[in-house]
Amino acid sequence: MNWLRDRWKRFRVWLRGQLVEHLEPRKVFWALFLGIAIGATPFWGVHLVMCLFAARVLKLNKGLMLLASGIANPITAPPLLALEGAVGSLLRTGSFQIQSVDLSGGFRSFFTEGGWLFFDMLVGSLVVGPILGAMVGAAGVEWFRRYPLSSRKPRA
Q1: Cα–Cα distance measured from residue 84 to residue 106, given in angstroms and rounded to the nearest whole number
Q2: Within-domain flag for 13
Q3: Lowest CB count within 10 Å: 41, 57, 125, 136, which one?
Q4: 107-146 and 25-39 helices cross at what angle (nearest 10)?
Q5: Does residue 40 sit in helix, strand or coil?
Q6: Is residue 5 part of a domain?
Q7: Residue span of the structural domain in which 83 resides
Q8: 26 CB neighbour count, 10 Å cutoff
């Protein structure tokens, strides 16, 4: 049982080190900015890999990036995707509307109409993601300036 306790303690030390590294204000901003921008893309299922790769390459906080990429959770994803689709449609066609997909025609209509919907969401995410990322990044920098880690009491 001691070996399990030792491994758990080493894991906690490693995890704490991962979560508190790279917390300078500039890096906090970029971690949150990129996490939101990656999380807003319609590449579901690879956000985790994209965030961990970007955090490692750019030496940013992995925990903040993963937390920020959670913007596309089941509660916030529908309005976020609708906004991205409408913005993408505005840029593509000039009208701010969400593309509807008629599924009564089988898979052929899904691939033709659904392809444009995915394209609109992708283009919209390239606009909406950085805007949201900049807002969340600025708020995160202000939070970390107002409540620095050195003023927090460590938990036992």
Answers
A1: 25
A2: no
A3: 57
A4: 160
A5: coil
A6: no
A7: 23-149
A8: 11
If one counts the domains in the chain, the total is 1
Residue 95 CA to residue 20 CA, distance in Å, equals 45
Euclidean distance between CA atoms 150 and 15, whole angstroms? 18
Residue 31 CB coordination number (10 Å) = 28
**Residue 150 in tokens:** 């050195």
pLDDT tens, position by position, 74-98: 898 888 988 998 999 899 888 887 7
Q: Which residue type sits at 92?
A: R
CA 15 to chain centre: 20
**Tokens matching residue 50:** 């994209």
- Answer yes or no: is 81 within a domain: yes
Whole-model pTM: value is 0.77
- For 105, other C-beta atoms within 10 Å of its C-beta total 11
Q: Where are the alpha helices (DSSP H) in the chain?
A: 2-20, 25-39, 47-58, 62-69, 77-93, 107-146
Judge whether residue 155 has pLDDT over 80: no
